[in-house]
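Reviewer 2 asked us to include a model.

Predict the structure of this chain.
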Amino acid sequence: MTAMLTVEGMNAWYGPSHILQGVDLEVRRGEIVCLIGRNGAGKTTTLRTIMGLVDRSTGRVVFEGQDLMKRPAHIRNRLGLGYVPEERRIVSGLTVRENLRLGLLASAVKRPERVVIDEVATIFPRLAERLDQTAITMSGGEQQMLAIARATVSQPKLLMLDEPSEGIMPVLVDEMFELFGRMRDGGTTILLVEQNVELALALGDRAYVMDGGGIVHHANSAALLADEATKERYCSV
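Predicted model (structure tokens):
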């Protein structure tokens, strides 16, 4: 299967700190790839660098045959990269509908708002019931769903998710991960950073393990799920 995203020798710095040190990974079309490891391993910085949000970086980020390293973040988004950061970044004072409208305005794909709302209602039934509710009044899990929905209205080819289960009630986490599976089945490719290793590996197709700013292990998700020694060495708190 041809890679949709290829990362080669990616390095990144925050000030003098060399955070990513030669990261290599690939994501193939139609799969969920998990990026796991302890806090501080470099997972979030990997997503941010792929998205073009780190000021100082080197290496190659090739998406559908185009090298993106010199492209700004908004161009990467228009080319089909979607990103939901850990902190969500929804506009809390706006309604659900208004947040979705912002996502649509930023999209390179111009579609009628009515069509987008209908799609959101199908995929995110909880949000359909809250279209005119102010975002800040919703639960953390519902706000996370809104952040994901806002990222998907632009119909990204690859969606990067950073810790989507963080601070979410277990019942909503299960619902969210079922949604990710349906999104993959519907054609959305996903790169998932997730601290809940067991849940991520049960969902994903392949997984990369990070430690010290680099990739230290790569395996089929099912194989890594059964590999207690590797999980204990690199993923246990």
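The chain has ten helices and ten strands. The chain has two domains: 3-80+156-234, 90-155. We have added this to the supplementary material.
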